[in-house]
Fold:
Amino acid sequence: VINTTGAEEHVGEVEQVIRTLIERGRSVINTLPFKTLPKRILIKLVYQCAMWLNAFPAKNGVSSVYSPREIIIRQALDFSKHC
Structure:
């Protein structure tokens, strides 16, 4: 079943994911000793937060074993490379 939405219609699940991503990014920014960040670093920070959110299986996700990252990219995280 495909759920389609019209223009100007809200999708609660997507909005929750966006809020979670923004919250993670703000929490990382608040731990840094800088007052402002360059735009390029801010973009990379959002990518990093999204990578870690997709690195672990979701409770009600498609798979209880594989993360969304492993399903889409078919590559597991490597401790020596990503940590």
Q: What stands out?
A: The radius of gyration is 16 Å. Residues 21 and 50 are 7 Å apart (CA to CA). Helices lie at 12-31, 39-53, 68-73, 79-82. Residues 12-31 form the longest helix (20 residues).
